[in-house]
Amino acid sequence: MADGKLEKYRGKRNFAKTTEPTGTSDGGSNRFVVHKHSATADHYDLRLELGGVLKSWAVPKGPSLNPADKRFAAATEDHPVDYLDFEGVIPAGEYGGGPMIVWDTGTWAPMGDPAIDLENGAFKFRLVGEKLRGGWMLARLKGKPNEGEKSNWLLFKERDQAMDIEGDILLDRPESVKSGRLIEDLVATPTPSKKQAKPQPGKRVGAVKKPFPTSLKMQLASPADAPPRQGNWLHEIKFDGYRTLAFLEGDTARLITRGGLDWTKRYGGLPAAFAKLNCREAVIDGEIVVLDDKGISRFGKLQDALSNGAGNQLVFYAFDLLHLDGWDLRNVPLVKRKLLLAQLLSGHIDTRSAIQFSDHVEGDGTPLFDHASDLGLEGIVSKRADSKHTDGRSKSWLKIKALKTGDFVIAGYSDSPANGGIGALAMAEWVGDDLIYRGKVGTGFDAATIKSLADRLGTMRIEDPIEGAPREILPVKPMLKARIQYAAITSDGMLRHAVFKGLRETELTTAPTAPRQRIVSDADLAGIWVTNPTRRLFGKSGPTKLEIAVYYAAVGDFMLPHLFGRPVSLFRCPTGKPQDCFFQRHPFTGMPATLASFPTQNSEGEKQTYISIEDAKGYLALAQFGVVEFHAWGTHKSHLDKPDRVIFDLDPGEGIAWRDVANAAVHLRAGLEAMGFVPFVKTSGGKGVHIVVPVTQKLGWKQTHSACAAIATKLATTGRDTFVTTMGADNRKNRIFIDYHRNARSATAVAAYSLRARPHLPASTPLDWRDLESIDSPSDLNYSTLPGLLTTSGDPWADINESERDLTPG
């Protein structure tokens, strides 16, 4: 066991004051770490996992990749294996007091027997880290051992491919590989003393005595091209997560999103962490994130955590304090608010805490911005140190994205047999209904990616080139999207310094449903026929008439159960031109023989006849008639006046992004479930989301519409700054309109899996709730991508008919 070896380490430390690990792990792997440590003197600590502890050497000048540099290394006490991941500030007055970062880490391997080599004073080993690699040697110096330890050594690099005789790795790579921070970024959080056990907000100029607020507006940063270099500015790392206000009252914390939604219950154990803070009440502004193994916030990991249950994975980075113990601090200068915040958090956070203080650097923001760019971080936020809190967007807070990253359509490629089949990709962007060429991308590919892309794009070739592309570009269907990192878009619309970062592809959760039941038979598939099969719809970059027919055949097994027997309206585009499209609500001359129709009458006694789909043949034949969209009633013709599905259409107004809509839908799901319903979700095929609720056939249309109005109104009260139930574009600016008016007799909504008549034909796609937040853009679910996804995921609405609940009259 390692415990006996750690007596000296533990004897030097007061673990009631320092957050360093006491040492509970015996390890079992060959890991190493190099810490950069700013204590009495700046130095580096090399630690190798061996025999259940970390054998440690202090290297004052740090390691060098130049074999000619022989660096002095003093052996120090063994450290616990837990110390491999330690990064933080050792309190002043404690042994080794000062900031410490994980400068490098990885695995190591001895070149001989380490015990014998250490005893003999010639210890060779190899490192595989992010900065240090290849062969190294520790050679013990002659002389009298210090206190019985063989303490004085030289550390130097072996001559191999990993050596560097020109560069200086310490200057070139000063950052932590764990968090990306410089050691200068770590500032000790003020430690409470007996004289100041807690912050004193009332003594700050600008503080106003006020009751605890039930809600507050967030201050938002304005975009900028570069960070300020002069002036009184604070610069912070920009996090990639959910902006959140924490309202603390006693032992209770409410976590409110930027849109005003209460997501406390979604955030697992995080709310409980705020109960430890020494205050009666507070409002703290921050960002909720999930960190990767390098300590960098990744939004994808946050989405995964929330979809699968947050648990204890979430971290709240606090960067502003707006109210504390009866004092409104919004008119206090930011730098003073942050000092109060640091004092409030002092003594309650360490490197493993669920709450962290978002520290800053002052003055010129360029070094931090360059550092963020090198590490692939989101960027930085620059804030005027003397600024007061401002509701909404302001110029006193600036957000500067590191390198720009965007998603662009692959519109073609240049052939290069010598390079595996692809020389460069032609990138494009949808602007309205037009696909606009944005230039070529020829870097960022490895051999495997080139081969994979060449195989896929070779099957997607089309004849019509994209306008503006060079002659050597071989055009392809504009269906794949790539994530591109670039410096800027030039004045003529071209990407500058573009690098390929990967395909943007959507994956759907495999649904635990029954095996797929075949409705569209092989004979039906073989019988697909359309005139003018190569006619392109919606422009020269749009799909062909045959491709639309093939799409509906491919998704028929999933779509038809949600269409059979329901009154439908067809959106027909016979010429492929948007101006020629029209709705077909009633039977028409020459319609497929197997397409059904049935008579009914409205509430005023007017007789009308509607269309319904009864079999696969009639459904597949509609492609010949230019049918692009299917819209269905929320009922079946067998109980026409008693709806069995109601829909809440979330229609975003100006200023609402897709992520906000997805978040809102998840929030409303919880509200509907609390009412006893089982809600299902699908994209609208546009910017919105449809929440569909199956109900028992007990109420008529008027009662159903009234009940849905009452539900929508109640749901809207849970996010008054987010939702609106009043129609009109002006009412929904920066709001999401909960449209319940589709729940009226003869009103329709776009059917599950129906395409939408737009250039890249997105589909109104049913989703597992776990997938909703992971989708970057609903347009990624389209006529080209969706059939393949469904074969592996199944229909997440397979159980919708078994999930009916009673709807209470409004």
Automatic annotation (TrEMBL):
<keyword id="KW-0540">Nuclease</keyword>
<keyword id="KW-0808">Transferase</keyword>
<keyword id="KW-0548">Nucleotidyltransferase</keyword>
<feature type="domain" description="ATP-dependent DNA ligase family profile">
    <location>
        <begin position="307"/>
        <end position="442"/>
    </location>
</feature>
<dbReference type="Pfam" id="PF13298">
    <property type="entry name" value="LigD_N"/>
</dbReference>
<protein>
    <recommendedName>
        <fullName>DNA ligase (ATP)</fullName>
        <ecNumber>6.5.1.1</ecNumber>
    </recommendedName>
</protein>
<keyword id="KW-0239">DNA-directed DNA polymerase</keyword>
<keyword id="KW-0269">Exonuclease</keyword>
<keyword id="KW-0227">DNA damage</keyword>
<dbReference type="InterPro" id="IPR014145">
    <property type="entry name" value="LigD_pol_dom"/>
</dbReference>
<dbReference type="InterPro" id="IPR012309">
    <property type="entry name" value="DNA_ligase_ATP-dep_C"/>
</dbReference>
<dbReference type="Pfam" id="PF01068">
    <property type="entry name" value="DNA_ligase_A_M"/>
</dbReference>
<dbReference type="InterPro" id="IPR033651">
    <property type="entry name" value="PaeLigD_Pol-like"/>
</dbReference>
<dbReference type="InterPro" id="IPR012340">
    <property type="entry name" value="NA-bd_OB-fold"/>
</dbReference>
<dbReference type="Pfam" id="PF21686">
    <property type="entry name" value="LigD_Prim-Pol"/>
</dbReference>
<dbReference type="InterPro" id="IPR012310">
    <property type="entry name" value="DNA_ligase_ATP-dep_cent"/>
</dbReference>
<feature type="region of interest" description="Disordered">
    <location>
        <begin position="1"/>
        <end position="30"/>
    </location>
</feature>
<keyword id="KW-0233">DNA recombination</keyword>
<dbReference type="InterPro" id="IPR014143">
    <property type="entry name" value="NHEJ_ligase_prk"/>
</dbReference>
<dbReference type="Pfam" id="PF04679">
    <property type="entry name" value="DNA_ligase_A_C"/>
</dbReference>
<keyword id="KW-0464">Manganese</keyword>
<keyword id="KW-0234">DNA repair</keyword>
<dbReference type="InterPro" id="IPR014144">
    <property type="entry name" value="LigD_PE_domain"/>
</dbReference>
<keyword id="KW-0547">Nucleotide-binding</keyword>
<dbReference type="GO" id="GO:0003910">
    <property type="term" value="F:DNA ligase (ATP) activity"/>
</dbReference>
<keyword id="KW-0067">ATP-binding</keyword>
<keyword id="KW-0238">DNA-binding</keyword>
<keyword id="KW-0479">Metal-binding</keyword>
<dbReference type="InterPro" id="IPR014146">
    <property type="entry name" value="LigD_ligase_dom"/>
</dbReference>
<keyword id="KW-0436">Ligase</keyword>
<keyword id="KW-0378">Hydrolase</keyword>
<keyword id="KW-0511">Multifunctional enzyme</keyword>
<dbReference type="InterPro" id="IPR052171">
    <property type="entry name" value="NHEJ_LigD"/>
</dbReference>
<feature type="compositionally biased region" description="Polar residues">
    <location>
        <begin position="16"/>
        <end position="28"/>
    </location>
</feature>
